[in-house]
Every structure is written in C-alpha cells, then in structure tokens.
Amino acid sequence: MTNLLSRLFGRGKKGSGATAKDRLRFVLQHDRINLPPERMEEMKREILAVIVKYLVVDKDRVEIDLEQRDRSHSKLVAEIPVVINTPPSAANSVNQSVSAADGSDANGANKGVDTDGNDDAQDGDAEDDDAGKETEDAQTEQRENGEETKDAKA
Amino acid sequence: MGGKVVTISSGKGGVGKTTATANLGISLASLGKRVVVIDADIGLRNLDVIMGLENRIVYDLVDIVEGRSKLRQAMIKHKKFADLFLIPAAQTRDKMAVSPEDMVKLTDELRQDFDYILIDSPAGIERGFRNALEPADEVLIVTNPEVSAVRDADRIIGLIEAADKGPGKLIINRLKTNLVKKGEMLSSEDVFDILGLTIIGIIPEDELVLSASNSGIPVTLNLQSKAGMAFNNVARRVIGEDVPFMNLDENRGIFQRLVRLLDGR
Q1: Which helix (H) or strand (E) holds A79?
Q2: Region A90-108 average pLDDT
Q3: Complex ipTM, two decimals?
Q4: Under an 8 A CB cutoff, do A16 and B183 touch?
Q5: Where are the domains of chain A?
Q6: Of A125, B107, B157, B209, which sits 20 to 30 A from B131 (CA to CA)?
Q7: What is the H or E stretch that residue B206 is in?
Q8: Among candidates A9, A21, A71 on the partner chain, residue whose Cβ is nearest the Cβ of B186
C-alpha cells in the first residue's frame, strides 16, 4: 500500500541526490589515488595484456576494481576468471588470441601515448592498419577500441 | 598552553566559512568564553562586514605581523560582547605577506589571554590555507551538500591529515530538508558516508542568514532563526557539550503523516 502510494507520488524513483552520491564516490576514488579514470582503464588493459600471455581468461568476466575503505586505505581488487578445460578447437583460437595479445602489447603502449594525443609517427611505425583504425575510432572508448583491434588481428 | 586555536576551512569558496566563523565567535562569546576571530583571507577581507565591525578598523593582521601595530591595538572589540575581538585581514596585500610561522607566533600570544582563537581560512589550498592551518589545534571543515563542495572538502581533509592536524570535524551548511526528503539533495548521512568525518554541525538553509549578513548582525543573535540555533549548537559542541542534533523536519504535511501511519512509523 505504501509502496503504491510512494510510487504514485514518485518517491520510489531515484532522485538526483543519489546520482550526486554516486558521482562523488567515483570522482573521489580517482582524486584520492591521483589516477584519472582514463589512466586507470589503460592500466587495466596493460595488466590484462600481461596475464593473457600466460593464462586463458574469461575476458567478459574480468573485474579489476579499486576498493576504498576510507581516504587513506585503497586496494586494487582483481577477479580474473581463468578458463581451465578448454576444448581443442577453442584452445587453438586461444593460441591465436595469445599471440594477438602479444601484438597488442606494443599496441597498448602506443595507446598510452595516444591519450596524450601526439604520437602519429609512432602509430604509423607500429602498424599502418592500426593507425587508420585508431583515427577512425578516435571518439569511441579506448577499451573497446583495443578489443576491436585485437579481434581484427585474431 | 591556554587557549585553543580552531581553524574554519572548506576548500571551495562560498560555502559559508566566514558566516560560520562569525557565528561561532558570537556563540562562544555568549557562552562566556573569551574569543578572538582572525580573518586570514588577506586581500579579500570579509569577516569584518559579516560581524558589523567594518567601520572600526584601523590596523590589520599584516600591520601586526610587520610590526606597525601592537597586537592589542589592531584587535577590534565587538559592540555587544566585551570578550569578543576581531583581527581583520589586510585588504591591500596578498597572502604572502604573512607566513605560517607568523600565525603560530601570533596565536601563541593570544592563547595566553583567550579561550578560543578562531581562524577564518581563505578558500583554496595555497599559502592562505597553510597560514590558517599551521597554528590549528582543531579544524572545522564547512561544506554544502553538493558535489563540488564535498569534493573540495575531501581534498582539504586529505591535506589536513597530511599536516597531522586531523581528523577535522564537519559542518554541513545550507542543508535543504525538503529537497533531501524528495531525494534531490545529498543528506547529511550521505556526506558522512563519503567523507567519513564526525559531523559537528548541520545548518539548515535559512533566509535569515542573508538578512543577517545584510545588517551585519550574525544570525545566531536572532532567536527566531533555525540556522542561528544550529550555529549555537556547534559552539556548544566545540566547548565539549553533548548537544543532540536539531530536528529539521519542519513540514509534516498530511501526506507524510498518512505514509507514516500506513508504514507503522
């Protein structure tokens, strides 16, 4: 009954106060460790690029997050599910994706410079196709961008 | 050591530091304490007008530091309270005219004759803030329940802790109870969750604060004002009294009563 009343009068809806709280949490998390969101994403990509050299992981379920107890206690928590019983055909494609990841290592480094926005020459050096793609997708999110390139190569 | 130095700080400008300092000064004086308030915002003097003492200024903080005035000469006595004094900021100089060591020296002298020395810190995280922070025994951080003010408060809290002056205590200023109830403003609990500091005051939005600054009579002298009462409660908490937080829930309309009834609250 109260729920109905509340809903009728718009009380069940999430107000802008809750949005403010979420945004604050996000922005303070990065302020406190002095690492902006973009750089954090870059770091996650690099971490993952190293791991996939050695292990087969379920990329869709990878979670690397910063947990903050308070202002001076933060920890990076990673959950990276490892794929164990890979069927032969998949194993094959895994090999490919590992080599792709190898390639995208250099790629990732390039992207790091890319955020600074002045590495056209380097990009060109690394791979012509890539350079083209990157300019094309310059607006899209970097992570997506990275995966796209990987897929394309694999 | 004698008196206690309390610095009022915020990070972001315009959240009500000066208003808070003036009102705490008045409230502490009305509680029988000997109080000096210092405007550390050199170049942007304001505490004098908020306290209604602007036309009595002869010397200022920089005159004291540079030896043109004796400490007592520069202190302006409040019209109403014999034991409340203001040391105004210089208007024509900048923050570099005073060093953190100057502030320590000055407040050490004041500690001998006063119970509380309140320092109104300038906004920002530079020299002026360092000046205000260095002599502090306790820091009160004023913030508003909004994203930018809380973010800046967090930054300043970090600096206060790094300077071994923490943990500070929070004054949440200009809380709009009706908006909080609608979910359209951060609540004091939200701010506490995010910043994790003890809250020493919750000041409701109150139009009388503007009238007070218009007339130069701090709002805590107005017994009709909820904000004034809330500031007075902060002063009592500063001196160590255990004062419960006011109920700011003013308009219990028929709808809310109905909801409460149905909810069994």
Answers
A1: strand A73-79
A2: 43
A3: 0.83
A4: yes
A5: 35-153
A6: B209
A7: none
A8: A21
